[in-house]
Structure formats: C-alpha cells, structure tokens
Specification:
This protein is of the alpha+beta class and 216 residues long. It is 33% helix and 24% strand. The protein has one domain: NADH Oxidase.
Amino acid sequence: MPAAWVWRFFPWTSRRENKNILEKLSDFDFVFDSRKILVRLGDKKRPAGPSKKVLEMIAREAGRARTWLDPAAVLEVIDYSQTNRHPIFDRAVKVGLAVCTIGPRLEQECAACFERNDLLRGMILDAIGSEAVIQVCRRAERALADRARALGLRPSKWYAPGFRSWEVEEQRFVFSKVAAAEIGVRLTDSCMMIPRKSGTFRVNFYADRALITRRS
C-alpha cells in the first residue's frame, strides 16, 4: 500500500493593494503520509506494525477527506513600527503574519462520527485534519519567506501564539492585523480559533543575517 496520497487544490489566488501587503492563498498540494497519521493517532512502533484494518481505514478516509477540505490562508506583512512591540518581534524590520485554515467541514464530519460512536473513524479524520492544517501553514510560511527575500530581507522560522514566550492571548494582535474573516476564521473571547482546524504564526523579516536560524 502506498504510504502517501497527494491532492491538489488550485481554485484561485488573489492579492489586494493596500499600504501593507495582503495575499490570500488557496492553491495547495496535500500529501498525507500514513506514518504521520499513525503518529497523530498515538500509534507506537510495534514489531508487527499497525493493523491492516487501520491502514486500510487511513487510506480510505484520506481519500474521502478531500471532499471536506476548504484550505485557505491570508497573509499580511507589516513594519516593525506597526507591531505591539512584543519581544517576539525584536530586531525585525518587517513581520509576516498568517492565518490558515482547512475550513469547518472536516471538523463537522469528525463530530458526526463521535456522535454516532464511530470513534476510530473520527480519530483518523481528526488526525488527517491536523496534518492538513500543518501543510497549509507550511505553504503560507514559504510564501512569507519568498516575500521577505523579494524585499531583500531574511526570513526567520515561523512561530505561533501559545509557543513558549508568545502567549496565546497574542492571537488578538494577529487577528487585529490580518483579515482572517476573508477566509472564514474568527477568534473567540478565550482566543480559540473557529474553525478549530486553523492556525496562526509570524515570520520575522531581518536585515541582519546573523539573526537567521532557518536553514532555507
């Protein structure tokens, strides 16, 4: 059985002119590796490997998941002077911000599975959704890194609210700068994103090469 399945979404990409840079992405290649899905399911390495039933279900649900994916990302690039001066932006010339999502439909299908006690299928779909969000974020990160280089600057690694020194409450700042509503994402009072299968992050744009930690 192949270890991965590839799907491509090319609906459209649009840009809107404003004083900053706004880009909306919806062209994505999805590659779902069965091994990564198994890790998200908590499967430990076993001498006999995963059961045939589980592998078959992953392959089947990975195919069906395409029906429920609505991937999109919206990106914004701001000057350092437009940030809230949080230490996470220190020494950046500009900052790229992103909000990414796969939409609500896969999440709704997962919920329906759990409601009818179809637990394994729900868990597999949830794991596929989590992997899909990461892939959308990585595509958005590459777009921001390309933008930094086009401006003659050097991109950092991505960093998300809730990681270590960047409090989850900082989601409010990200949403104040990025037009997340354009892709149907909103923030609750407790800083949870809706749809749940969404993500945000920043990429700093540096002038000083010595500040760069990313490899490419």
